[in-house]
Amino acid sequence: MAKHSGQDAITKIKNSNVRMTPQRVAVLEALLNSKSHPTADQIYQQVGRQFPTISQATVYNNLHTLCESGLAQELTFGNHSSRFDGDPSEHYHVICTGCGSIVDLHYPLLKEMEALAQQTTGFQISHHRLEIYGECEDCAAERE
Fold first, then answer.
1. Residue range 82-130, pLDDT digits in tens
2. Residue 3 region, left (φ>0) first, then alpha (ψ -120 to 50), else beta?
3. Which of 19, 20, 59, 92 is deepest in the core (most CB within 10 A)?
4. pTM for the structure as a whole
C-alpha cells in the first residue's frame, strides 16, 4: 500500500459530507497509511503522538463517523477487538490464525452468491462478507 499524505485524507473528507477537524484528518491519515488494519487503540497510540491531549473517546467517535460516512470500515471478528480499514471499497480479507494479521484480498465480488441466497431463502440480501483464515508466511516459518 502506498504511503498517503495528509492531503489525501483532507481531500477524502472534503469530498464527503463529514466536517473536517485536524483530529479527524489525523485518524483517517493513520488508517490510510496502515497496512495492518489497526485496532482503535493502535490508532489512538499513533494519533496521540501528533495530538498528545486527544482522548480515546475522540478517536472512537472519529472512527465511528468515518465508518458511517463510508470513508472507512470496521471489521469485527468474533470476540476480538474491532479492526479498522481505510479502504472502504468492497473486498475480502485473509486473516492469520497465528498472529492475527489481516491482508486485503481483491477478488471479483461474489454477487451471484447473494442472488442465489436471495432466490433460495427468500431473504432480501443486503451484503455479504468473506473471510479466509490461514497461517501467514512468518507464522508458518516460526512454527517450522
1. 999 998 888 999 999 999 899 999 888 888 999 999 999 999 999 888 8
2. beta
3. 59
4. 0.80
Question: 28-51 pLDDT, tens per residue?
Answer: 999 988 888 999 999 999 999 999
Fold entry, domain 6-85: Arc Repressor Mutant, subunit A (1.10.10)
Q: Is 95 helix (H, G, I), strand (E, B) or coil?
A: strand
**Strand boundaries in 2-142, DSSP class E:** 73-75, 83-85, 92-96, 102-105, 131-134
Cell representation of residue 2: 502506498
C-alpha cell at 44: 489512538
- CB contact set of 69 (below 8 Å; sequence gap of 6+): 16, 17, 18
